[in-house]
Structure formats: C-alpha cells, structure tokens
Amino acid sequence: MAHDPPPMFSNTIALCLSCLGCVVGTGNIWRFPRIVANNAGDTGGLVFLIVWFMFLMLWSIPVILIEYSVGRFTRRGPVESFGVMLGKGYRWVGGWVFMVNLGICCYYSVVLGWCMYYFIHVIAFPLPETVEASTEIFNSMSNSYYPVLTHCCSVLFVALIISRSVSTFEKVNMIFVPILLAIVFGSFIYAMTLQDAIEGVKYLFRPEWSQFGKARLWVDAISQNAWDTGAGAGLFIVYSIYMPRKSGVVKFGCLIPLCNNVVSLVSAMTTMATVFHVQVAKEHLNPDEPEDLKKIVKILSSNGEANTGLTFIWIPTLYNLLPGGRALAVFFFLCLVFAGLSSMVAQMELVIRTLEDFGAKRKYALPCVAVVVALLGLPSSLNINVLVNQDFVWGFGLILSGMCLIFLVFWYGTHVGQGNGCLNMMAGANRFRKEVVNEYGMGDWKLPVLWAFLVTFINPIEAAGMIGWWVYDQASQSDPPWWAYESETLFAAVSQWFFWALVLISLNIFFGHKFSGGSSSYHQFDMNDDDGGDMAAGTAEVTLIRSGSSTGKLVSSMTEKTPLAESGHSRVVVYANQSTYL
To answer: Range with the lowest mean pLDDT among 234-238, 240-244, 275-279, 403-407?
Structure first.
C-alpha cells in the first residue's frame, strides 16, 4: 500500500507550540480545578497534588514517550502502528487507543461549545456580579439547546481547520497558544493580589494525609494526569507523524508534559484564590474556622453536576473584579476556544489519519468523521449527566489505552529470544528503546534503561493496582450501587468498554485480512533529514523485518545495505537520508 509522505512542521517553534496546544486547553482550565476540588479534603488538597505529580513522572511521561516514538517511526495512526510493529492480529489493540480518543472527542466538542457560548455571552451581556448570578448563567446554558448548536459549530470549525492539514493548525497554534498562556498567567498574577487569595493557595497546598487511603483520589489523579497530558490518547502518535527524525521526541516527551502540568497548577491556584477571595471578603467567612472552611469547600465542590461548572462560574466572577474585566473575559474565552480547538484538531486528525491508513481519501474521510463526532456527541450536549458519564468512562479508559501502548513496547521484539517471561519483556522494551528511539532519532536525548524498566515492571503494576482498587471501591459503594447504570458507576464504565472491545475484536477478525497495510514495503525518502548519506546510489542502510506467521508477528530482524527494489521483504525501515513510511 503506497503512501505519499505527510507534510512536516515548518520549524521547531511551530512544532513545540502545536504539541503544547494539543494538550493545553479545557483539560487544564476547566477539568483540573474541578477534579482537585472534588478530591481535596476538608482541610486541603496537597495529597491529590502529590499523587498527581507522581503519576506524571511514573505514568504519563513514559507513555507519551511511546506515542512520540511510535508515530515518528511508523508514520501511521495507532491502529496501523500496532499492525506494523506487532502484526495484523494486534490491530484491535491499537483500535482501543483509537476508540478512547474518539469517545473523548465526542464530549470534548460539547465542552468546547460551552467555551464558544461563554465567549459570545460575555460580549453580549455584562459579567455576573455575584456567584449566584454566574451559577444561574451556567445552569441556564447547560439546560438549554444552546450546547447542541455550539457542539455542532465546534465540529464544523475543527473540520475546516483540518481540511488543510498541518499547515493550518500550526499557524493557529503559533498565534493563540502564546496569547492563551499570557492570559492564564496574567490572571494568576492578578488573582494573587486579591484580598485573602493566599488562603486559597494555602488550602490547595495544605495536606490532609487521610486522603491517601481513598481509592477515588488515586484513580482521579492518574486519569486526570493522563487526560491533562494526553497520555494514552494517541494524539502524539499522530502529531509525530509530521515530525522529521531530527526532532527530539525524548525532549518533547519529557518537557511538554511538565509545561502542561504547570499550566494546570496555575489554573487551579487562580480558581482557588478567586473562590476564597469572594467567600472571605464578600461573605465574611473565616477559613481558619473549621465550620467556615467546610462551607467554602462545599462551594468548591458544588458547581453543577459533578462540579462541571467550577471554571465557568468563577472565572467570570474573577474578571468582574478587574478594571476592564469584561474585555479581558472576552479575550480569555476566545483563547480558551482556540486552545480547545487545537486539542480537538489532534483528536479528529487521529480518526481521519486512521481511515487514511486503510485507504480512505482525506476529502471523503473528513466529512464522514465530522458527522460521526457530531452525532455521537449529541447525547452529551442534550444532557449534562451523559457528559459526566462519558468523562468518567473514557477518562479512566485512558489508563487502559496507556496499557495498550506499554504492551506494544515490551511485546515488540520479544522474538529475539533473550530470556523468558519478564526478562523477555525487558528485552523487547530495550530493543524498542534502541531501535525505535535512540538509533532512529537524531540529535535527541538518549532514552535510558530506566525507562525500559518502568514500562516493563512499574507501569503494569501501577495500572493493575489502580484498576483493581477502583473496581473494589466502586463495588463497595451502596449509593449508587455498582450495578446501577448511572453517571459514575462500575457497571456503566465496564459495559461500555466491553461493548466497544467486542466490536474492535470482531472487526479485526472479520475484516483485518482485507487490508495489507502492515505487510507492504516502504521506501519514502525525506531529504530534509540529514543522516549522513555516503551510500552508493540505489542502496540504503535498512532494517529488514521478516514476517514468520499468519498474523504477521515479527520473528527476526537484521540491518544491512541492500538495493531497495531488490529487498523483497515485508517491511523495510530505512535509516539513511529518509523517514520511515509504510
């Protein structure tokens, strides 16, 4: 199956801002403060922050490094990446990454629609003067048909941006991501000058050690970090398709998540400072008094269904306190719209790229994907409880998606035969580290052996522990019981996962043989990657990987110089003067 080379990011700054714009947005400004508020105890939220940061280092960054490396190496979306690296029989595993991303995309567009609604609302109407007035605006919006309209507009705008591929969305990100960051940090600086704002920051960083024993806190911390950074969603697999070999995937995979989480922390501090300022200065509550503190904490966790309205209620309240606050609010929600658009661009691009991998033309795949996302997102736009359910199901589904990517790493190359069991898994992870990252990349940091140890031993234990603890916690609840099909119950999540896993496996069994994407040779040159190149004309240094089973499992590999036209092997990974295309 021949493929034209994809366009590349024009420069490093565009690439950096696009990757940052891919994840910085509503997850930081809308979702993170409400998740912190939901999991903070009566006296403080430091325990959640500790667990959240731990999962950044021990889960999100290792998984993101896999995404960057796989996308750049295979030049394919997640489904075909699994087919190429593990064999056609494993495409359904990559399909799970695809499905989690699609599930998030369908309700993410609704939240993006809320941002659009607020952008228009603050232009047309004065900012609310009280928290009650701001709450009424949010409740009125969420219970109307406006979310349906703005959801459809979100999908339409993203489709227009994607129609021109990377050349369009890198320009959008280069303009609006710096502006968004300036407004976020500017709002934070001003919030810190408000009377009693420091009380909100103190509450955020005050420990309540008993919170360590709550399973939901650990589950929310790992799923929020994955949601925050995009770990496991497959977004960076798609973006790294447009990265040349000289792009530092290890540098990006380490630094972008750290920068992203700084934005999340700043957003939470801004929100907490605003809430405490209003409640202390206006309502005359004393945060040093336990009963008054409980009242403030209750307000933090009661802003719409599952606290979905926290940012939308308190940010307008903050800007109402500023000179020229209405103009700043307009600018803030405009930039939040574009930050959300940049994230949703990556989500829809992943779906389109997957269809292109299987032979669909972009001009047909784009409208089909837009219609599907619009239709699947309608229930979330009509009922906020459905949105909460989808956020619960697919937010935690990111952990399962991350496990799929980890499975790819330690299963890649296990045929080498270096040991059995865990030792063979470690050998596979090391082979991935060397071939896919360190040897294939140019001018990048070297990925250490510690990373292979993490993904082989620590990450599976993390995931299994979180899943087991989460199941136990959900099963032990009585209100609502675990078997009830409600917004955030065990049965609601597992039943949807089981249904879509069954669909993916069935598609793999019945239709996988009709596509040969993983078995065709490729030799697409990229002269912008200067690897050296003093080879004879018509030859290249290639990695030959032979297929030794009906499923296409990789059973041997070697590196040699060979004429491309005469290689005769199922896959040819070219290292000299070119990127890898299948």
So the answer is: 275-279
Secondary element (H or E) of residue 205: none
Q: 443: alpha, beta or left, given left = phi > 0 and alpha = psi -120 to 50?
A: left
- Indicate the Cα dihedral angle 146, 147, 149, 154, nearest 10°: 140
Can you give the pTM of this predicted structure? 0.83
Output the furthest CA–CA distance in the chain (Å, rounded).
Answer: 81
DSSP at 569: S
Could you check whether the bond before residue 480 is cis, i.e. omega within 30 degrees of 0?
yes
Domain locations in the chain? 12-512, 520-574
Q: Residue 180 in contact with residue 341, Cβ under 8 Å?
A: no
Strand, helix or coil for residue 288: coil
Q: Any residues with CB less than 8 A from the CB of 17 and at least 6 apart, and which?
A: 170, 173, 174, 177, 178
User: 9 near 15, Cβ under 8 Å?
Assistant: yes
- The DSSP secondary structure of 484-514, one letter per residue, reads S-STT-HHHHHHHHHHHHHHHHHHHHHHGGG
Please name the residue that has the structure tokens 């565009």. Answer: 14
Of residues 193, 196, 507, the one with CA closest to residue 354: 507
3-class DSSP state for residue 573? Answer: strand
- On average, the pLDDT of the chain sits at 80
User: For residue 137, which phi and psi values (nearest 5 degrees)?
Assistant: -60, -45
* Residue 159: how many other CB atoms lie within 10 Å: 19
The CATH class of 12-512 is mainly alpha
Q: What is the rounded CA–CA span in Å between residue 339 and residue 224? A: 18
Q: What is the helix (H) or strand (E) element at residue 364, kind and residue range?
A: helix 362-382
